[in-house]
Amino acid sequence: MDKVFISQLQVNTIIGVYDFEKESKQDLFFDVEMLTDIRAAAQSDNINDAVDYAVVSERIIAHTTAKPVELLETLVEQLASIILTEFNVQQVMIRVSKPAAVAAAKTVGVEITRIRHA
Ligand SMILES: Nc1nc2c(c(=O)[nH]1)N=C([C@H](O)[C@@H](O)CO)CN2
Predict the structure, then answer these.
(1) Which of 6, 43, 55, 92 is 20 to 30 A from 31 (CA-CA)?
(2) Candidates 71, 94, 95: which one to mutate for ligand 1, based on the most atoms within 8 Å of Cβ?
(3) Ligand 1 atom nearest residue 16's Cα
(4) Residue 63: phi, psi to the nearest 5?
(5) Cβ of residue 18 lying under 6 Å from some atom of ligand 1
(6) Which fold has domain 2-115?
(7) What is the pLDDT of residues 45-86, one digit of tens each?
(8) What is the pTM of this model?
(9) Half-sphere exposure (CA, 13 Å, Cβ side) for 34?
(10) What residues are labeled active site?
């Protein structure tokens, strides 16, 4: 299967378990890989036949900044569901990194892969 991807999408938002995290925004970075058949888009050369990575990026930013959640797990499950429901994607991998969370680590985060059920 072919792949449309987004790398290191930066989103500044409220996220976290602790009270101090609910008061100031932090940066999250998303890597997204979407499995899709690109042949129709390649044949037509029409963006309407493609998974538009710009539209997906805006959807991720809009959802991530709309309503705060505590866990990265909650956020990536919601985003995977949105992508599989709203876009022509058969499988999605989402990795979210929260670099400010653990001082001694370069970054930490969560990665999931979800498949569309027919
Ligand atoms: N598996 C997870 N572990 C932790 C999360 C999380 O979302 N998923 N979140 C936190 C805190 O919000 C942390 O980022 C604050 O430093 C801790 N562990």
Answers:
(1) 43
(2) 71
(3) 12
(4) -70, -40
(5) yes
(6) GTP Cyclohydrolase I, domain 2 (3.30.1130)
(7) 999 999 999 999 999 999 999 999 999 999 999 999 999 999
(8) 0.97
(9) 27
(10) 98
Neighbours of 58 (CB within 10 A): 12
For residue 15, give the ligand 1 atom closest to its CA: 12
ipTM for the assembly: 0.97
CA–CA separation, 107 vs 59, rounded Å?
A: 24
Q: 71 CA to middle of ligand 1, Å? A: 6
* 72 Cβ below 6 A of ligand 1: yes
Residue listed under structure tokens 């892969």: 113
How many CB atoms neighbour CB 33 within 10 A?
16
To which residue do tokens 């059920």 refer? Answer: 117
- Residue 59 makes CB contacts below 8 A (sequence gap 6+) with 82, 83, 86
Cβ–ligand 1 distance for 96 under 6 Å, the answer: no
Q: 69 CB less than 6 Å from ligand 1?
A: no
Sign of the C-alpha dihedral, residues 34, 61, 20, 102?
A: positive
